[in-house]
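User: My advisor, Dr. K., asked me to get a structural model of this assembly before our group meeting. I'm new to this, so sorry if the format is off. These are the inputs:
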Amino acid sequence: MQQMTGARMVVEAMKRENVEVVFGYPGGAIMNVYDEIYKHRYFQHILTRHEQAAVHAADGYARATGKVGVAFVTSGPGFTNAVTGLATAYMDSIPIVVISGQVPMSMIGTDAFQEIDAVGISRPCTKHNFLVKDVKELPFILKEAFYLAKSGRPGPVHVDIPKDVTAQIGEFDYPQEMRLETYKPTYKGNMRQIKKAVEAIAKAKKPVFYLGGGIVRSGAYELVREFVSFTQIPAVETLMARGVLRYDDPMLLGMVGMHGTYAANMAMSEADLLIALGPRFDDRVTGKLSEFAKYAEIIHVDIDPSSIGKLVHVDYPIVGDLKNVLKEMIPLAKEKVDSARYENWREILKRYQELHPLSYEDSGEVLKPEWVIQRVGEKLKGRARISTDVGQHQMWTAQFYPFTRPEEFITSGGLGTMGFGFPAAMGVKRGVPDEIAINFSGDGSILMNIQELITAVEYRLPVINIVLNNHYLGMVRQWQTFFYDKRYAETDLSMQPDFVKVAESFGGIGYRVETKEEFDRALEEAISKNVVAIIDVIVDRYENVLPMVPAGGSLYNMLLEYKD
Amino acid sequence: MSERRVISVIVSNEHGVLTRITGLFAARGYNIETLTVAPIPDSKYSRLTIVTSGSPRVIEQIIKQLHKLIPVYKVIEHEELIEKEMVLAKIPLGERLADVEALCKAYNGSIVNVGKDGIIVMVADEPKRVKNFVHALSTFAPKEIIRGGVVAIER
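Assistant: The format is fine. Below is the predicted structure of the whole assembly, which you can bring to the meeting.
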């Protein structure tokens, strides 16, 4: 067995885990590790300009590739800056490992320089965390961290390593396999429950597939597509499941929830059976719980037992990995389910789709954000990865972009983190360099991690940031318009930097566009030049995201239009 | 409709595990009425006994969330159980010793220490009976009453 320092163990573990890139930011407490990075060059290190961006980049990389994303940060402020990244990954079940430096063991608890109780802070926003007290524990903990991040319901794992532990010498006994007595995720669904669920589908009259992010994490989308196609049961997607079905799948009713389509929300409200595959019944999907799917029995398949029955009563709970469960379920369903049975139901929903399709009023005078998104879709459909920040532009992207596959749409769903999109898009670009990386952002969100322009320029990660600029914190402004009598408290962002010059000063390229022709030219040029870009798109200031279910309202009570 | 439940949790003996459990209760707004912890002899596990209350749905969530914690080996929901709780009390010497002793006897307890200015009594019994005992004790002007948490074992 090889003797080495704790710091060396960290980089050796990365090698064993086939880590090709680490996003990070050095500092006092993690310098020993950085010294080993310098010596060994096992992986590329991308120096972001803020720790939050490092974790979001690792997260975006993980979302786009399905691999574990890795970030290194130092103690104290380095770590606290990383917390938003951990929480973002936690809420969306993204497998990442974040390693932070800590002050030496002897100084822990003394309020030392750059000391903070890191594991105390990360506990509620990680799947698991570790404070490594002895170098002897380090190889096992590193292996366990990767194992926990990607197994079961994935999630972020944080490893806090005191500086003296990285200097101690120990045996590098890296486990090949990991088996934990206290952690045994259920992968295989209960066969009896699966049979009962299939029977429920066979005798339902108005079933709906309720597709969630778990499908993406499990890599089960092909099975889902097969299931939908032979049963001809209509489907709705959550924000996190966009792309599970192709945008042009005739069974897809669109996104469900607060900004879901009329047909999707009505389908949930009138269904007699929900086939919930990997969603978590988030409040932005269900609206008022007592009115949610109140005529429906519910089948819920999820790898996390605590997701099942957390918010609504479930009639057919199935704990297991979606891939495994669907492999059992589909052959049974093929025997029992007659797709003709749901013909009337499909007709009803088709009428709903025709009654209130997703729409917007285009204008000859001012660019509409929805047009911009559709336009990008027309040009790049299927060959770009689309990240977003958080707000109106995020919802419009979810509504109007023609998604063709999962892992195409990279967005912070659960935590709703402004500032996520750009660094995440850098991670995406690093993970899938052959595809175009687009980040739809807003004039609010983009400024929350704008410093990453320099990272993207330095490491040649040509992300195209399309800023849908309405000079407002648009989503909050929309709520103020609807629910606060237009008292626009602190949402007016008329005061702005010159985004073109901002991009240029970092070594990127900037465009400011106000017409369709200008937009087309800018997008084309940004793609062909293959450099980091900001396209500052001046859009209608008062465009609203519709339909909208007011918070706490019932899904079937949608605001379909807003007339001033 | 809130019900009282006794839950035993078997966890790995490692630092921070108690914070994970109490943190989970705090973060999700669950109640902890009593909590006892001790290592299980000859093993790498500890046993926590938690008395909590909530609606059946909340209790179900508590149990699932506890299961989800990585160092949790087992969560036992007790159906048929023997519960015991311990109480220590300090009573001034001036009180009627014979009466105190009789009371302790009635609750399977005893006087465990007699000092210069007070006596210490101990009772270990079912939580309900401990409550009654504490109530009865008030006539003797106790200076201090210390209750332990509940420990429970399946019948």
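One thing worth pointing out at the meeting: The helical segments of chain B are 17-28, 56-68, 97-106, 127-137.

User: Perfect, thanks a lot.
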